[in-house]
Amino acid sequence: MKRAKKRKNSGKKIMITTIILLIVWIFGFYIYVTYHNIEIYDANYTAQKTQSTIEEQSVEKVEEESKTVADVIEKTVESVVGISKLKNAGTSIFSESTESQLGLGTGVIVTENGYILSNEHVTGSKYSKCYVTLENGNNYNGTVVWSDSSIDLSIVKIEAKNLKYITLGNSDNVKIGETVYAIGNPIGFEFRRTVTSGIISAKNRTIKIEEEEKASYMTDLIQTDATINPGNSGGPLMYPNGEVIGINTVKISSAEGIGFAIPINIIKPIIESYQNTGDFQEAKIGIYAYDTEVIPYLETGNSSSFQEGIYVTEVTPNGPADTAGIKEGDIITQIDDTKLNTMNDLREYIYTKKPNDEVTLKINRGKIKREIIVKLGK
């Protein structure tokens, strides 16, 4: 009996000991896991290091981007030239003479074989002679092979090869607020190839220019607050990636931070023609027209009903449009499949055509809508 009781007590002790050991093991395991969880809180330090690393990477990225922009601009400057209507007695058109004395302005090389884009008021009209100095100091006699006073653009040819030329961007895609850079030769020798920066302040601007008691209008301009001074005319307005979106042309002297550039897309077809064929056969339609931005300046009775298209103010007698039946007061809304909202839309399209090509115009004549086929002339 006593033995059986002892065995029973011994069994209880073993069971209690086992339970205690199990509890101790569980508690030890809990402490072990908890200890490792406590160590995980060291992630705070790691997170701080990571955040610091991100900040350092951001600074490095900004510095890298700034360096990249600077590199791009430095390369673009090599395609910027000085242009003068008068030949300097020295070895370069860049001299102590002022912009007004030499007619100093700017141009940009657009092909490797010597075609240079600038303003007509810088180079002179077609067949004029001018003088060009490259970034490396080499001088060339230049001939104006094409110009258009209505948009103040011209193309000069010099006899040179393997030139570094600019990259043309897409001026149709510009957005207000984008960063841009202007390069030019303000004032004279001391400030040649000056680079200024700013933003695109507005698009499709129209300005009235009065010279010698005559008024003219420049339309569809890009407005910028990048500093543009006398001598910057003909220079590039470009994105940070080096793509040129406009050619600087005029600055309003009565206000600060208001300059203008001509959208590059207008001139692209002509540049491509000279680049591919060495020639450009310009087609003419034979009208003068304005868009909705200009009409308020004019004394017309149709401005209130003029919502879209371009308004014909004059038809060249016996010209292509006159022969086809276009009349003063017509509103042209479309040419072939291209809708027209500015005169530059029409110019850009006509520049892709050749003399004797036919185009179809959609016009509004009062309440009447018509389609008229026009055979383009020279």
Which structural traits does this protein have?
single chain; 378 residues; alpha+beta; Thrombin, subunit H; Pdz3 Domain; 3 domains; 6-stranded antiparallel beta barrel; 6-stranded antiparallel barrel; 32% strand; elongated
Mind explaining what this structure looks like?
It is a single chain. With about 375 residues, this protein is an alpha+beta fold. It has 3 domains: about 75-155, Trypsin-like serine proteases (Thrombin, subunit H), CATH 2.40.10.10; about 170-275, Trypsin-like serine proteases (Thrombin, subunit H, Beta Barrel); about 285-375, Pdz3 Domain (Roll). It is built from 7 helices and 19 strands. The chain has helices at about 1-40, 45-75, 100, 120-125, 270-275, 320-325, 345-350; strands at about 80-85, 105-110, 115-120, 130-135, 140-150, 155, 165-170, 180-185, 195-210, 215-225, 235-240, 245-250, 260-265, 285-290, 310-315, 330-335, 340, 360-365, 370-375. The strands form 3 sheets. The chain has a 6-stranded antiparallel beta barrel with strand order 1-2-3-6-5-4. It is elongated, with a radius of gyration of 36 Å. The protein starts with a helix and ends with a strand.
